[in-house]
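Anyone? Bumping this.
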Amino acid sequence: MTLHARLVVTRPAFTLDIDLRVEPGEVVALLGPNGAGKTTALRALAGLTRMSGGQIGLRGRPLHTLPAESRPIGMVFQDYLLFPHLSALDNVAFGPRCQGVPKTEARRAAAALLERVGLAGRAAAKPRQLSGGQAQRVALARALAVRPELLLLDEPLAALDAHTRLEVRSQLRRHLNDFDGVTVLVTHDPLDAMVLADRLIVIENGAIVQQGTPGEVARRPRTDYVARLVGLNLYRGLADGTQVKVDELLFSTADSLDGPAFVAFAPAAVALYRSRPDGSPRNLWQATIDGIERHGDNVRVHLDGPIAAFADITPAAVADLDLTPGQRIWASVKATETHAYPA
Amino acid sequence: MLVLPAVAGLVFLVLPLAGLLIRAPWPTLLERLAEPQVLEALRLSLVCASVATAVCLLLGVPLAWLLARVDFPGRRLVRALVTVPLVLPPVVGGVALLLVLGRRGLVGQWLEATFGITLPFTTAGVIIAEAFVAMPFLVISVEGALRGADQRFEEAAATLGASRWTVFRRVTLPMIMPGVVAGAVLCWARALGEFGATITFAGNFPGTTRTMPLAVYLALETEPEAAIVLSLVLLAVSVIILASLRDRWVSSP
Amino acid sequence: MAVRRLSRWAIALPVALALAGLSGCGSGEPAASTTSASAGGAKEVTVFAAASLTGTFTELGKAFEAAHPGTTVRFNFGSSATLAQQIVQGAPADVFAAASPATMKTVTDAALAGSPATFVRNKLQIAVPADNPAKVAELEDLTDAKVKVALCAEQVPCGAAAVKALDAAGAKVTPVTLEQDVKATLTKVELGEVDAALVYKTDVIASAGKVTGIDFPEADRAINDYPIATLAKAPAGEAARRFVDLVLSQQGKDVLTRAGFEAPDQR
């Protein structure tokens, strides 16, 4: 039941061209900024957007030649798109009815699915009477009701508030674990992607820029976008053993390699000094403070200079250092917290 | 700022009705209503307008769907053509119908030769004339509803395995129902008041083609008071029917 | 894009509807006369005349303007009954020429006109399509159920005349339609929708060969008199009387008889 796909969609000033291979039971998240083409990719898989080229194969069968209604798919839309004139039960029973299942049987199956997502009591409710989290679960049940081989989820949690999101996310993870088909989900939220997916595929400008397990992607971002998502400072340089040259700066790193390399370190690993620190620690540079903002319990300092970087420090440290924008300051990061990997 | 012109608009619309009410010959009203010709014309009007609306629904909703959902060359032209009966003076519409469906018309000739059917001067002719004039109201209303409807619901239905027809029947149609009902009401009201195309295409004969508006027009020639009575009957019946429909259909969505 | 186009329609439609409504109603409305009533010096004469007089009166109006430089004649042609109603409701007319004594009576009863004079008579003819598909030759042929006949509705003068003529002939005719005016009746014949109709001879002549007229003896029993009168409150005063004089003169008779009308003394 493996999904093999090459999706090509050409539009004026935009081209999507990506290769996908997803194993049964695997959950892949397409992650990317707005306009990267991740929703387009999902719609192409569903048959809702016409492809300019490429092909889709599921279990060796071509899918791209079929119209949406003939593809063995289930799709959860960003705002769920529950049919407003049907009850939750009839929404879930809609797919089986379209497949020719008799009404009573379709409703029985739908009721079972609603129970599975914990909504047995809301079967008669119309979509507008459901809370966001409930609607999301009905949408999932509706997509699963057609017994899809390929489950597609478009920003499944984006429409929920932070609190509901937390709860629905872990439930969704459980349901996805139980699902033995291929799952492709689209999200721009790294946390959703990390929790829900077995593998991340990062798309920028219609092309795949990085893929791997959530851990790999989080530790070793390969683009500025991914670095920002996972909260790391990222630079490209040239490695020579444990030294990486980034522009004019020379970084000592915990890893040893040669050739083009990425250097990454966490903002929390950056230390700031008003005057040049004694003992000349390595990985030291002089920067200008570009901005200061709250960041969770800490304060994020935007640094300009030979390299742009973020530094997360405690409010107490800000007070001690008496930081103001425009001020010159010394920044350093320990070699043990500076990671390098091949570019 | 808006209330003043709103009130002026209402007065403008309601004053002519007040005129009819004031000039109505109340003492002889019941007597005039009991005339069999009046009831006959009223019955014919209601039947024809209702059947014409059904015809418009049957043909107009798919046409509206075509205009709203299918991208084909010349769509703008087709959309403009659909509104032709609105701009055409109804009498001209009636003549046009005669030229096509009349005894010597392009299609009418063939209808008579093949099936022995002639449409002018028949009740079917009244229905055709009314449907011709009233259909644009339905098509425009339904097309607007279709354009306003979120097409992604239709996509969602497709991903659930619904064929085009199932999507239309079980998703699109229920979602645009308020627009369809509004269009059907407009269409019915227009058909009920239809005069020019009807008298030109279907003629005027008691019992078969003389609907209320025709009876009103002829009464106006000799007996303006009778015309007022007939108008009030038509008005009252249509208002009652529309009001009761509104409660049933156009209540909370 | 779609939304914008829709809104354009939303604006265009009511406007189009309003325009269609206006043009439909406007034609029947009397034009307000702006003439001052100074005796004999009127610049404008407003004539309300039956629709069947459209051709002849337009011609006479031009002749009148030529004979009285500086004076213009404005016409409002329409159904006699409608015109009579408009005059009763206060339309500013100088002259009323009706297609039946009954409609003129509406105006004289309201004491709005002086004594009317009959200036022409109109006679019915059987009108058949040029190819006469039902081979109609006389009034009796109209009683055949297979012959489709259109008559004017009894409420309008040509319909009343038709009933009178058919009664006189003892002919039982079941028409397929009772049209609202003589022009509509004639149109049905022109288009071949009916095999025959009873209309005025003048209308047959005006149709210029598109229909054939057949005389029948009983038509003499249902001759329609056309009365003309100046109106009591005629703003144009003397000029209105002069126009009526022209209609009644030999010149007027010539124009009218050429169109198929009969002179009242020609019985």
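Late reply, but here is one note on the structure posted above: Chain B touches chain C at residues 83, 86-89, 95, 98-99, 102-104, 120-121, 140, 144, 147, 196, 199-200, 202-206, 209-210, 214, 217-222, 224 (CB under 8 Å).
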